[in-house]
Design a protein that fits this description.
- The protein is an alpha+beta fold.
- It has one domain: GIY-YIG endonuclease.
- The chain contains 4 helices and 3 strands.
- A hairpin with a 6-residue loop joins β1 and β2.
- The protein is globular, with a radius of gyration of 12 Å.
- The two termini are about 20 Å apart.
Length: about 90
């Protein structure tokens, strides 16, 4: 089963959250609608600014764990490498 690692935020250079899922569109919809109580809904993290797909969800889980240990500036650099304008990529999933 495939997996995705993703980063959501509330605005450019705002609070960042790294997550992992097997269904990216569904999970981001849940973040956008505030359907899951916790960190992302508390801080209004609704904008998908970065993601990557892994063929095996176990690889995605390991990547998420690694990235959560990164310095914030590394995460920002990763986002800006592929999405310098911090566009919300959610609509591009369709």
């Amino acid at each position: 089963m495939a997996g995705y690692v993703y980063i959501v935020t509330n605005h450019k250079h705002g609070t960042l959250y790294i997550g992992v899922t097997s269904d990216l569109a569904r999970r981001i919809y849940e973040h956008r609608e505030g359907l899951t109580p916790g960190f992302t809904s508390r801080y209004g993290l609704t904008q998908l600014v970065w993601y990557e797909e892994h063929w095996d969800v176990r690889d995605a889980i390991q990547r998420e764990k690694t990235m959560k240990q990164w310095y914030r500036k590394w995460k920002i650099a990763l986002i800006e490498e592929r999405n310098p304008d911090w566009r919300d990529l959610y609509l591009e999933l369709w």
